[in-house]
Each structure stands twice: as C-alpha cells, then as structure tokens.
C-alpha cells in the first residue's frame, strides 16, 4: 500500500471506531433510562427510550455499510481484519441491547395501569447491574485493556442469579394474590430482558477478547481465572 492508502485506511478504521463508540453511548443511555422509567413509573422517559431506538438502528445500518465497503475495497488482514469483523459483531450486539431497552420501556408504559409493587426495586437493582456491565464493556472497547473483557465475561453468573431469585419471588407473589398477576408478568418480562442484556455484554466481551488476543476466551464461563487463558492482570474487585 502507498502511504496515502495506508493513511486513508487508518482513517476509515478510526471513523468506524468512533461510530461504534457513539452507538454504544446511545445503547447505554437507552438502558439506563429504561431502568429508570420502570423504577420511577416515568411514562415520558419510557417514550423517549422507545423513540430513541431509531437512532441506534440507523447507526447500525451505517456501520454495516462502512464495513462492507471497507472489506470490499481494502481487503484487511491480521488485526485490521479482526477489528473490522469485531465492529460488525459489536454493532449487532449493541442493536439488540437497544431493542431490549426499548422493550423494557414499553413494559414501563404497560405497568402504569397497575399499583406499584415492592419487587420493582429488585428489578431496578438488577437493571443497574446490567447498566454497570454494559458501561464496563464499553470502557474496555475504548481502552483496549483485555482484563476488562475477562471481568465482564466472569460476571455473567451474577445477573443469572438475580434473575432466578426474582423469578421465584414474582411467581410467589402472583400465586398468593391474583391482583399481582398483571404487574408481576410485566416485571418478569423486564427481568428476562435485563438477563438477556447481560448475555449480550458477555458476547461483546468474547469479541473484544478475540480482537485483542486473536484467541477465543473459552467455552464455559469460569468462576475464577482459567489457567489455560493467557496471563492477564485482572483489576481489583470493586469495594462497596
């Protein structure tokens, strides 16, 4: 490649990264607002999330268009190829997170028809965990510190445990009081959407790990650092 071609290629990759960062910001905002809309029974905020999903969809299509053009014209290799394919996968994961945030916002509108129930706070706590995981994986994408991806990958079980516990509690509520069936069902769907968002964060962690190392992170999510993985300096656990 000539110096001009290399510079143009680098600029295209940087623009792609900037678009992906913007898309991540939109998705993070949507998720945070959707959780807030549920917790505060804020119908206006829920409608903002639903309407804002269009921005995420438009940006995903723009990213896909740029990637197809880049693959066709530049034929990247090595890390450049990994970076291009990773951007395509990450855009897809972020679009799904945006869709799930929109679904949560729609439930926030539906739940307005019922009296508040105490377990809404448990759903809010679960939602905040998902927001934290998404923020962490987006920070990892920007910093390119692979330990952050491993950390998110290993946290997936936390959301699963919250979901299972909340599922049992909501079912108990609905069995004991038929009036709880309506709001309880909506909260069950919200909790499931949050749990799925955690799965998408885990998928993103796997993509980022591969991007930075050229290796798969593994098949079974570990409960501790797997000795088979390349040596990684994990960040210290967060303090309360």
Automatic annotation (TrEMBL):
<dbReference type="InterPro" id="IPR026022">
    <property type="entry name" value="PhoU_dom"/>
</dbReference>
<protein>
    <recommendedName>
        <fullName>Phosphate-specific transport system accessory protein PhoU</fullName>
    </recommendedName>
</protein>
<comment type="subunit">
    <text>Homodimer.</text>
</comment>
<dbReference type="InterPro" id="IPR038078">
    <property type="entry name" value="PhoU-like_sf"/>
</dbReference>
<dbReference type="Pfam" id="PF01895">
    <property type="entry name" value="PhoU"/>
</dbReference>
<feature type="domain" description="PhoU">
    <location>
        <begin position="123"/>
        <end position="207"/>
    </location>
</feature>
<comment type="function">
    <text>Plays a role in the regulation of phosphate uptake.</text>
</comment>
<keyword id="KW-0592">Phosphate transport</keyword>
<keyword id="KW-0963">Cytoplasm</keyword>
<dbReference type="InterPro" id="IPR028366">
    <property type="entry name" value="PhoU"/>
</dbReference>
<comment type="similarity">
    <text>Belongs to the PhoU family.</text>
</comment>
<feature type="domain" description="PhoU">
    <location>
        <begin position="20"/>
        <end position="107"/>
    </location>
</feature>
<keyword id="KW-0813">Transport</keyword>
